[in-house]
């Protein structure tokens, strides 16, 4: 594959990511994507095989799948360390690639047939979180009665800034420091799980 082909494919993907995040998959036409990318409309079919394949390619190219799968499959030193690392990465991803995280949120809300593609990338991460919560509960590290309820709370806190963005309260993303938000979210989650201060600081 030549460099110009790689370049036009990337431009199409970046254009699709921007437009899907702004106006949704169904509200975006192939022509709009190509206009945004400065590409001939036939190139979407040529390079990807259609708009739906472009959607799948976005996750393959921009979702941090390799890193997330490594975290999901990795043998963590402790449940606390595992939760710390995964929650930190979730917050950082949703803050640094807001277009992709907006697409994820929109597709989950709409529950289209594309949601299966989204969950194929999300499931390994949240499955690992559930396993870590169960492990921590059994070890007495997490002071929780129900793993299922704790899972809901952890997910809610980790993604709270996404929901707050569209609330009537004023949150200026430009003023938010991603690393600070990640650290404070981790601290809040660990406190909620009943982790003592010594464990939280290691």
UniProtKB/TrEMBL annotation:
The keyword DNA-binding applies. It comes from Paenibacillus xylanivorans. One of its GO terms (biological process) is regulation of DNA-templated transcription. GO terms for molecular function: DNA binding. This is TetR family transcriptional regulator. It holds the Pfam family TetR_N. Keywords: DNA-binding. Transmembrane segments: none annotated. It comes from the Bacteria.
């Amino acid at each position: 594959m030549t460099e110009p082909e790689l370049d036009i494919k990337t431009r199409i993907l970046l254009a699709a990511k921007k437009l899907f995040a702004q106006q949704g998959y169904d509200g975006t036409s192939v022509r709009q994507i190509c206009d945004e990318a400065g590409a001939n409309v036939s190139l979407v079919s040529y390079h990807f095989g259609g708009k739906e394949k472009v959607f799948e390619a976005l996750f393959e190219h921009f979702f941090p799948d390799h890193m997330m799968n490594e975290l999901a499959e990795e043998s963590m030193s402790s449940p606390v360390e595992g939760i710390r690392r995964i929650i930190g990465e979730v917050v950082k991803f949703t803050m640094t690639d807001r277009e992709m995280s907006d697409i994820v949120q929109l597709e989950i809300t709409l529950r289209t047939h594309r949601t299966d593609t989204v969950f194929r990338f999300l499931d390994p991460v949240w499955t690992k979180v559930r396993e870590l919560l169960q492990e921590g509960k059994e070890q007495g590290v997490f002071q929780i009665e129900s793993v299922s309820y704790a899972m809901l709370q952890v997910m809610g806190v980790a993604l709270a800034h996404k929901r707050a963005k569209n609330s009537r309260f004023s949150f200026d993303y430009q003023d938010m420091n991603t690393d600070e938000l990640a650290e404070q979210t981790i601290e809040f989650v660990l406190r909620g799980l009943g982790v003592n201060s010594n464990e939280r600081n290691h």
